[in-house]
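Two proteins follow. First one:
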Amino acid sequence: MNLLSKASSPYLLQHKDNPVEWREWNSETLKLAEELDKPVIISVGYAACHWCHVMAHESFEDNEVAKLMNAHFICIKIDREERPDIDQIYMDAAQILTGRAGWPLNAFAFPDGRPFYAATYFPKDNWKKVLMNVAEAFASQRKQLEETANKLTKGIQDVDVMNFDVTENTKFSKTDYKDFFGGWINLIDRENGGFKGAPKFPMPSSWIFLLDYHYYTKNQDALDITTNLLDGMHKGGIYDQIHGGFARYSVDDKWFAPHFEKMLYDNAQLINLYSKTYQLTQNSSYEKVIRQSLNFIKNELTAENGGFYSALDADSDGKEGAYYTYHFDEVKKILTDEEFKIAESYFGLKENGNWEDDQNIFYKAKSINEVAQELKFDKNKIKKDLEIIISKIKKNSLNRNKPSLDDKILSSWNAMMLIAYIDAYKALKDESYLEAAIKNADFLNKNLIDEKLQVYRNYKNQKASISAFLEDYAWLAQAFCNLYQVTFESQYLERFKELTDITIKKFYDSERGIFYYTSAENSDLIARKIEINDNVIPASNSVMLNLLIDLSHFYPTSNYSNITSQLASKIHQKIYKSGPYLANWARGIGKMVHGQVEIVCVGHKALEKAQELQHLYFGHAVYMGENTKIDLVKDKRSTGDLIYICQDKVCQQPVETVAEAQEILKNL
């Protein structure tokens, strides 16, 4: 019997009508496998995954395949976004065995969870062969499978191990920090932006590091590399030129053809990146991307309660990208002849399509100036006409079937989006962005953090059901830290500290000097994983490094500084070679070696002045308002409006104007 109709995950619910007798991961399911002496299939995916849909249609909806699976296995479906802890374990198994990783992920394991085989997508006939071979091996070669499972389990447990037995903290210097960039040079695609090769993922934390690096070292190349990436992306098909928002990645090396699913975490981090770069450059193209992307978030991924949904699928009508791509003649019918000439030139539309199946992906093939020169039109007219063109195509898309919505709400992804709204507010001074951030914070406080500071991973159907992971605690803490600095509301600062302290208690291993991904309370898996490498989402340990550095400025204690030193020492040998995969770690080390500036604003206009200062990019600054619980602020209560700029808790003479403060900050 298929039991997924009771699941909360939209991905699991997609499989509730499969003839496969799917179950959720829980102790009852594993106990059943043990009682029946059957191996388990652990099938992992997510709602917006195109190839997950392909395998589902080919195999899991097929009665013959289902009969094989049901006869020989206990079948478990996992939403990797709800249970990243399980996904990490079996993804490591696939990586160790095959050298490949991705989704759908299919693992075979003993009832206690020890895997003996794992791989990704299988066509139907191959999947049937695998099922028969595994069933036969489980019946006749159990001893060999046990040996494989034991070795593989040990490999999974050891894969994260670095030099955790280091007893002395290794310190970085400014020279060390300056050398980090050297390992990146040969990886950069200077023509198209981003890193060389395909498929191409945005990797936002890499470029935010380069913004910091430019700020600290004045290296212009670091900024130029970042703006080249941002220009390449917002001109490409990975950016939705009609509706706003970014797809998960580009299948080519030019940012042209996207894998069309839109994820909340990608868009949050990219809005963050474009906002920070706008603060440095004041590039109006970046402002447009920020506003369009936040309109997409507001229209498509925002719940009435202030929470943010997880994703839009890549597919609609059973076809990848069908909602976003158009035949040449379709566009022609929507627009006037003159509008179509502009659209054809600007978006690179081709009669036989610029993509597959005669379809066209909208991308910025030419600049407005180039189109004006080609068509002999005034460029201001083209700008206005493009707005009309986009509006008409957007209106036409209402007649199409939308990609399905993954409407679960995840703590860490919501925190990322909260941070993005804050950064967009700082960059563009749009009050509606701050209002959205505050509304989301209120939602998170009410629904995903209980009175005992237990955080939950997910929220669906007015219920939170899964205990949170390090990723959730870390991003939530950072979000409340950032929200305090643009509101000076003490409740957010207190929540920042509370969440950080409980995270240390639940996840920190003081002997190893590192944070586990799962808490000690959740120990039912075969391995307790540790996130080290930054990827499309920064590693939760690197997020902890950065937020602990921030927290130590508000609450300077030896405990926080000791943990940051221990964390930083763990990647000392690796950071020069790993480049982008330790980019968020490098950001934290930049704060440590260059020092952060504490900006204390007091008086009736304290918040107004702090917000004005944050409109520009001062990557090394933390902001404090009048609050007697912060040691640095206690003696700075004033009837006047003053700005104190401090380093290492030592403050310069206060100034009265934002312009004076900006001048000091630029020279530090």
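Second one, unrelated to the first:
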Amino acid sequence: MENNTSTTINGKDDYTAVISITNNSKTRLAAGKLEIRTNPRFTFDSSLLMQEWANDSDDVSPELHWLHDTLGSTSVNALEPGARQTVIVHASASSDVMQLFRTWGPKPLSIRYLVGDVEKACIHSFVTRTQDGLNLEQTPQLNVVVALPLTTSQWKATNANVKKLLTQSGDTDDAVTSLGSTERSEQEALTGVLARHKSIQVVGDPSYAQTFETKPNMAAIMQPDGFDIAYQAQTADQHDWQSTGLKASMWNAASGGTLYRDAVGDEKASVPTAVAWQSTAQWTTKSLAAAKSQGYSIVVAESGYDPSTPSAVHTSKMVVPTSAGNVTVLNTQRDLSTLAQGKATSDDALAETTESGRLARIVAQTALYQQEGPYESRTLLVSLGQDVDSTDTANMEELVSKLESCSWLKLDSLASLIKAQPYVSSEEAAERASAVKSLGGQEAITLGRQVRDLGRARSNITRFVNQVLVKDSKTASSSASPSASADTRTSGNDRPTATQWARSLNSAYLDLARKSFSSFPTENTTMIRAARQLGNGLLSGISVAQPDSINIVSQSAKMPITIANDHPYPVHIHITAATDSELFTASVDDDLVIPAHAEVQSTVNIHVLNSGSTNVTVQLQDRSGVTFGSSASARVTSVFQINDWSGYAILALAVLLGVFGLWRQFHRVKDPDE
């Protein structure tokens, strides 16, 4: 089903279906036809029956096994393997079959492709007869809140950005994260849609909202960067979150309010209602209590609180009592939200693999929901999803426009849903919350690994700042070896101090860490990788050049080494050296201050006890004497030593020869001629 396919029949307008047929077989298909059959008199009475029809289930009602009324048909040309043809089926509003649609509600459609009398393909969809022109009793509209969690998966943290922070002393607010190249145009498109459709209730990530040139109006704010509050609460006693540096003050409602005021540029601006939106983990009772303690008395649950079996829908609100106080849980309606986010309700619902098919289903589904309780006042929450790109923006506008045109619906506000009456008691709500399970499986393993990776990255950053970096020392560069060659880029009086740079490092790390627990696995992986690069890069940015191998012909020698600092500020390190042979010793007792972007020379003292070869390994240590970074090794060979056994033998032979020479000199007989 393609765009421009009719989703409704109103008694005045013609019906049009745009259908594409593709030959996925390896053989040629002869010319055939496409026909659309329906039953205008049939009424769906449950969501289960609608799902069975969408899935083309064998258990579907017998009335739907054969649809006798043909809405329209058209011929299809012969199709070669891989060929595709798009056809249009048209039914006039005045046709006999169109006049049979006299009852409002969702109707079945069977779209069949036949070659001769053989059915080659069939999909099931829906068309909805609107209330227009029908003599119906006035009943309350079904309230629908269409909510857009305004966040993004487009945060990037490139190697170049991390390297820039590690090696250049720019502004103190240098950011490692940035948005993708297409994000600006997508923001403009989204801003336009939101301006045209005020009914869309924006629940904005205040951190992401700062990047918009035209700030969207928000019905509520969510936790910064969509941080997974539920998972953090569930694993607070299991993982060492303290080692990551992440604290609730970074994502609680108060911090969100501060970011919102920064986004709108008004320190006194009134902050919208704070709502914690579900990320990866579901809202367990423990998670709800944590959210409440962090200032979120309202949360949105996209899973875990919807009935497991299809039933009549109810208002998407319940109030759960927790140890921290009552928490309002707004649960999104499962089927409507699934369709609104561009996904089929099941793998077997083939018509819903296209946008047009999903639109037909969502309109039909809302009509059924209104018919299920025509005299009840109910408000449903529909989520448009947490990552809307340019394609989704166009589809979102088409969806909202269609819902706005449905006379049986009222697109309501988030505030109205928050004020609505819960449809279950607090006892039943507590029972549902207690049945929600903590995150498990591979997702839990992955997030647990992220906590450990962040802990190691922060440990490296803290160690570098406290034990290696020379903070705000005006004489640091002059205390280094005279052979040091500093990069002129570090000169200047207006650049940030080392302490300010250290704060930038910590700020960049915390930004990466908070963005590592969003609902987007790919983005999380990117942030974790950048955090590791930042932590490792600080220590690996100080390196020992590979020394040359040397040959020794005496008892001692000196091996020159070069230590480089790639960072924009001086560092203070200690050098150690060791050999892998007991017959050689290597020592260096040198504390060095290496200027920014500079190299410093030092020497390793080598003493030889015996001839042979060994490897001399040089390592760097911080001010606490703990080794860091990569080591450098060189081969050392002693070709002659006087104090080994061969030396002693030669010396003894020389003494004997000398004594013998003296004895012979005094005891020889003189020649008469002398």
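SUMMARY FIELD: Residues 441-467 form the longest helix (27 residues). The chain has a mean pLDDT of 90.
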